[in-house]
Amino acid sequence: MDIPRKSQAKKRRVRRILYALTAVVAVALITVGVSRLKPAAQSVEEGTLWKGTVVRGPMIRNVRGMGTLVPEEIRYVPAISLGRIEKRLVQPGAQVKADTVLLELTNPEIQQAFVDAESQLRAADANLTTLRVQLGKQILDQEATLAQAKSDFNKAKMQFEVNDSLGKQGLKSSLEVQLSKIAAEDLENRVALETKRVAGSREEVKARLAAEDERVRQLKDAVQLKRTQLNALKVRAGIDGELQTVEVQVGQQVTLGQNLARVANPKRLKAELKVNETQAKDIQLGQRVSIDTRTGIVGGRVIRIDPSVQNGTRTVDSSLEGELPKGAVPDMSVDGTIELEKLENVLYVNRPVHGQENSTVGLFKVDPDRAGATRVQVKLGKTAVTTIEILEGLKEGDIIILSDTSQWDNADRIKFS
Q1: Contact 170/161 with Cβ under 8 angstroms?
Q2: What are phi and psi of 253, to 5 degrees?
Q3: 416, 303, 331, 295: which is closest to 366 by C-alpha?
Q4: N or C: which end of the chain has fewer CB within 10 A?
Q5: Which pLDDT score, from 0 to 100, does residue 33 have?
Q6: Of the spans 1-15, 102-116, 317-331, which averages the highest pLDDT?
Q7: Are both 288 and 396 inside the same structural domain?
């Protein structure tokens, strides 16, 4: 029997170990190589893709909003007087003038109150006339008394002067001279007293007439108020325009201040646009607006920006400049584009589906051979309705895919089929 030698067994064991190590190394190298291989590019039908070319030049920033046309001048016609609707003279849609009577109301109490106020005013006017005559006669009587007192004083003064002269000549006694002097002084005091009395009477007359005048004025105001309430029973449009709605029916009782109708001027319209709150931050008064009524385009400017946010939007009012397109009527739906600013000499492209302002996104740039597209990181800047500024990652003439590429988020390259 052969006995194996130990040296041969050892060699075979070493050989097997070497083979095993070689196999392990080979598997590791194959794994590393496979992991470094790029995945196969996904095939995409080129005709289904929407592409855009990067260009350099001026870019107009704008935002868009949807809204409606509304009249600039709207008047809600209130009930100035209580009453019952007697007649309805005009139907909605009719063209009216400011003095056109829309409705007629009746209120017997207002009519009677007007008659009573006029009667009180006539009585007050008569009393004022009578008082003016009486006080005038009183002043005349007092002035006549003052005139008589002045006449008597002048006579007494002359008599004193004569007596005083004769007394100096010894022809009149000193007693007669003194008595004539006293008489003259008494009459002088009487003249002063009557003068004050006339002045006081005139002040009294002035005050009494002013009080009566004020009463008459108050009654005139009352009559005017009643006349206004009476005239208000005929409800007028108040402005030139179109009667849009009538809120009441014949026979209905209306209260003070109740809305009866609405009148608007259809020739003076403005656009109320709803703009996303995130896009409205750069809107300013006076910016140009293009309004698309679907029957034509008319220009305008921003005239009001609502400071509040409702349902994620802000309301922006735009005036309408020039002639309105045919068919433009209140409550018509419109689209408005507001021009924010003009950027000079910038790189820009049509907005990708997922392109947001001031963000960095991965976009597929078409390869030079047009056989596929490779993902690149692009830094975006300011946006407009249809375009967006390119800050980094692309150059003029590059073509990118603008379509939704979210289905290829795990791929760095696609090929066209």
Answers
A1: no
A2: -90, 130
A3: 416
A4: N
A5: 57
A6: 102-116
A7: yes
